[in-house]
Here is the input.
Amino acid sequence: MATADKLILVVDDTPLNISVITGALKDTYRTKVATNGPKALTIAAAEEKPDLILLDVMMPEMDGYEVCRRLKADPSTREIPVIFLTAQTEAEDETRGFEVGAVDYVHKPFSPAVMKARVHTHLVLRETRAKLARQLQTIQQELETARKIQLSILPSQLPTIRDLDIATRYIPMTSVAGDFYDFIVVDEQHVGILVADVSGHGMPAALIASMLKIALAAQQEWASDPAKVLSGLNQSLCGKFHDHYVTAAYVYLDMEKRIARYGGAGHPPILMCSGTTGRVQELDENGFFLSWIADATYSSKEIPLSSGDWIVLYSDGITETVNRSEEEFGRERFRAFIEKNSFLTPDEFATKLLEEVHTFSGRTRDEESDDDTTLALVHIRDMDIVIQKA
Here is the structure.
């Protein structure tokens, strides 16, 4: 640290004290002097601000406590460290000084060596804090860039598939997320939907999630076969990382034949609500999670689709949200919500569900959630209504 460029403001109404202090500092630092509080505030607010202030506590007109309080109330001088100069040694006096924002005390009569050591220490600490603040700002800027890049790899618009209404939600726990969703659009009657969740959080999980974009695109040829899609994803990811794994659920919707095929890889079961009965069932056709076993095998099941059916893919950020009592939102509560709200449009449903989960958690809007949250909803339109409208 180049100390010769550092400016120290000495505030004291006693000429002898000023002489002792400036004499002790003159070979190491530049100094300015103020003999009262108002003058000190004027100098501190000038364009060239002091790097540190040595401030006498007992002064006429405005004491050191009030000067320090005003310095800390002004954003332009708030970060300047203040060391109080005082003959008072009572704990209550020192406590009061720290409460108004001082960083240290130097007691009278002054020891030049002690004063120089205290000044040096707090200048170093200020430099360190400033460096950490710059580093934090850089990290935040990089995270914001990473957030924008990650959002750019998600679908920019929902696919338009005959007889389907689709809605999605994607809420990162932090700036970047380990969740991912995407579509394989074959044509206007056929679409595959993937929801995946990388273990862990933050940048490593987000980087792995971004790998899924390319890996899924490579499965276009066999989009209609969930087992092959999951196997292809697994082979693409194996050997690329070792401290994380990926769970996934994939559904292929064939609106020409009115069927759905689904498969999973260690992921929470898909939920399906019948448009006829209004009841929800779990579709749980799970293989091993992705990326750990190269020759892992996967399977799929086929189910018929009817008007009014719902298919819900999601990450565990929904079901594993906990409230203040450490109780999980859970799949049973999720199923009950679906059965109760199946009359909504997919977009209305998604919005209301996330509000319900947030209310359950008891968190404020500023509090961080437990996990990333991803939701993909599919509603099979009522064909009779569509025909009537046409």
